[in-house]
Recover the amino acids of this structure.
RNA sequence: GCUACUGUGGCUCAAUGGUAGAGCAGAUCAUUCGUAAUGAUCAGGUUGUCAGUUCGAUUCUGACCAGUAGCUCCA
């Protein structure tokens, strides 16, 4: 007999060798029905797993993240089974569970069309109805190779597992068998509600030089109502999409004639960008940054010296013949320009750190498929700064840069949405990264220590570093769940030397400084995109291009409205009057749809009493106030952020 | 760049192998109105662009341009 510790610490005895499935059965029919997998001593396992020793066992259902993953993983096998039935020539690659469902990659001659996807989905539903039991077995590498001899991608995977010395595990359901580590559900029939969401191309092993496979995405739930709920949620999220909302609200537009990735900001969008820029430039000045203003283009020589020409030429817009000596390029970054300013004078160790910042418009020739709303564009403006410091000042300066980012996040209201990623080089990628193992190891270790000292939670990501050094990226997800870098702080051990930057140290020796590349609010366009999504277009009062709209009820209150407008404007509040000859309900509706924070309704009553009727975003009618009282309240609310 | 999908007036969408219709927005007129849409009239389109098939294309085919999601990339 073995002792099994169940949920809530209850210990039960079972004969050794009993499976988790059999134990689950004893715990009730409901749980057995809902069970997806189990956790044995903290490890997610199949319910088929026999228990041989005393252990802790908890049953995982769809309610738990790890249970969900098992559920979706089985769904991906159902997808593969359906594809194999309909397209026997399809070769199987991999099919994992992801954050919101699953996918499976197939190698097929003809990528699936939307119509094919419908057929595949129907076949999946048929398989679910058949409810085949899912079974597990293992084979030796030789037997496994024989079994999968027609599946080239599986053979590749088998070779890898075999190299680790493991037996190879398989899962079967009905007429389908797949190489798989598991775990899986007991029966395919549990996947009651499923939907294939899209079909895209994806490269084998995420490498563009490999063959492109056909990836089918889907999601699934134990109940139809859950699927419905999920699909509704996705639809709701799309309503916050900055690319839709930003256009609707008139923040920006794009034009085929102007070109891809080149948004045009109208008065409202431009106003918000201006507010953000003033805020950032003032805040950075307070923190010891000095403003620079450098050219938008330079001769190729500059980029050759910095190394960008070798590492980044394809991403630059060139002006003139690439091979000619006088070819120019629009700048894709500001580093070498600010470094040139640094180099225009001798520097003493007494001057360091020097902190340069610039509201810097950059140009990057992103490939056509990369562009997305305001998040990936070809011309954008970065709050770009470079801190030139002595090596012993690195930790302090890095910490200061993190501090600034934290403060900015807090003010614009994104603190809760942003997470930290420590981006390291991929040591095997000699082409992308500067080839200096010692410097990399050294810098990464130093930076890791600084991060630990600061005490922020971070994840590490291989192969995400800049070519010249590791980065701390402040990441955020858009409404579609896709992650992007919002702010970044980078330690550079390479460019200062390459650009011949020096300082004279206390001992009279010329030394090479370290450089911290950093952005405090990132790229304005991208940050605006995230703000629009975060607030669903209803930006905080201090950021609103129009803070108050005065709505006269009829022409008779127009003059009164004009007087109010002057008082508001004089007080520094961004306001306007809707003088159109429309009904008050109509004007309110429009202002409401534009998500304005405040409306002032003025008619005969207000004129007589010398008051204004206030409507606040989200609250509706909040009653009457005197104009002075309203103005001071609004100013107070704006100043809460304490930035102007 | 690759894969799938999409492109009809400023916006949202309808229709069709025989050159298109609605709502909103716009203009004009009337209405001077009390907390989310006043009414009428008018105007607005070479159906993304260019080829091809056809007696005839907005509809079918191809290329290109642009958009959406994903992949690769993102200094």
């Amino acid at each position: 007999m073995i002792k099994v510790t169940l949920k809530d610490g209850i210990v039960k005895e079972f004969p050794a060798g009993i499976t988790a499935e059999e134990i689950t059965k004893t715990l009730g029919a409901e749980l057995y029905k809902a069970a997806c997998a189990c956790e044995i001593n903290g490890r997610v396992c199949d319910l088929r797993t026999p228990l041989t020793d005393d252990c802790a066992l908890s049953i995982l259902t769809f309610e738990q993240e790890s249970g969900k993953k098992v559920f979706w993983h089985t769904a991906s096998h159902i997808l593969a089974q359906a594809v194999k039935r309909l397209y026997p020539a399809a070769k199987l690659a991999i099919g994992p569970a992801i954050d919101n469902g699953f996918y499976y990659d197939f190698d097929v001659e003809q990528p699936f069309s939307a119509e094919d996807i419908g057929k595949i989905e129907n076949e999946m539903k048929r398989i679910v109805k058949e409810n085949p039991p899912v079974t597990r077995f293992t084979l030796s590498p030789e037997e496994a190779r024989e079994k999968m001899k027609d599946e080239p991608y599986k053979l590749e995977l088998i070779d890898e597992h075999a190299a680790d010395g493991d037996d190879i595990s398989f899962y079967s359901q009905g007429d389908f068998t797949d190489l798989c580590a598991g775990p899986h559900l007991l029966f395919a029939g549990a996947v009651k509600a499923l939907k294939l969401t899209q079909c895209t191309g994806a490269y084998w092993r995420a490498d563009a030089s490999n063959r492109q496979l056909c990836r089918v995405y889907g999601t699934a739930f134990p109940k139809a109502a859950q699927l419905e709920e999920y699909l509704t949620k996705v639809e709701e999220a799309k309503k916050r999409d900055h690319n839709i909302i930003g256009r609707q609200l008139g923040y920006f537009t794009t034009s085929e004639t102007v070109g891809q990735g080149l948004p045009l900001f109208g008065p409202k969008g431009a106003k918000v960008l201006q507010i953000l820029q003033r805020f950032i430039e003032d805040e950075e000045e307070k923190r010891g940054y000095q403003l620079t203003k450098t050219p938008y283009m330079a001769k190729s020589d500059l980029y050759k010296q910095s190394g960008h020409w070798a590492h980044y030429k394809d991403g630059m817009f060139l002006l003139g013949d690439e091979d000619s000596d006088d070819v120019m390029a629009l700048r894709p970054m500001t580093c070498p320009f600010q470094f040139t300013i640094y180099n225009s004078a001798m520097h003493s160790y007494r001057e360091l750190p020097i902190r340069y910042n610039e509201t810097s418009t950059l140009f990057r020739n992103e490939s056509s498929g990369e562009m997305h709303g305001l998040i990936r564009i070809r011309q954008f403006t970065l709050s770009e700064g470079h801190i030139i410091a002595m090596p012993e000042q690195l930790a302090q300066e890095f910490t200061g840069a993190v501090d600034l980012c934290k403060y900015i996040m807090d003010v614009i209201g994104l603190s809760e949405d942003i997470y930290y990623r420590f981006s390291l080089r991929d040591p095997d990628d000699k082409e992308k990264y500067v080839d200096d193992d010692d410097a990399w190891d050294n810098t990464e270790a130093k930076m890791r220590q600084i991060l630990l000292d600061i005490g922020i939670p971070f994840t590490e990501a291989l192969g995400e570093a800049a070519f010249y050094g590791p980065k701390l990226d402040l990441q955020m997800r858009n409404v579609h769940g896709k992650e992007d870098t919002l702010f970044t702080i980078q330690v550079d051990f390479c460019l200062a030397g390459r650009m011949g930057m020096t300082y004279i140290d206390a001992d009279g020796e010329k030394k090479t400084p370290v450089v911290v590349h950093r952005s405090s609010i990132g790229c304005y366009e991208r940050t605006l995109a995230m703000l629009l999504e975060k607030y669903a277009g209803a930006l905080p009062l201090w950021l609103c291009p129009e803070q108050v709209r005065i709505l006269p009820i009829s022409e008779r209150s127009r003059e009164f409205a004009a007087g109010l407008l002057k008082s508001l404007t004089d007080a520094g509040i961004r306001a306007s009057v809707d003088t159109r000859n429309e009904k008050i309900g109509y004007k309110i509706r429009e202002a409401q749809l534009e998500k304005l924070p405040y409306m002032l309704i003025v008619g005969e009553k207000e004129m007589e009493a010398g008051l204004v009727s206030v409507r606040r975003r989200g609250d509706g009618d909040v009653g009457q106030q005197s104009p002075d009282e309203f103005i001071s309240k609004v100013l107070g609310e704006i100043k809460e952020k304490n930035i102007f």
About this structure: Chain A has a mean pLDDT of 91. The first strand of chain A starts at residue 2 and ends at 5. The radius of gyration of chain A is 30 Å. The first helix of chain A runs from residue 20 to 26.
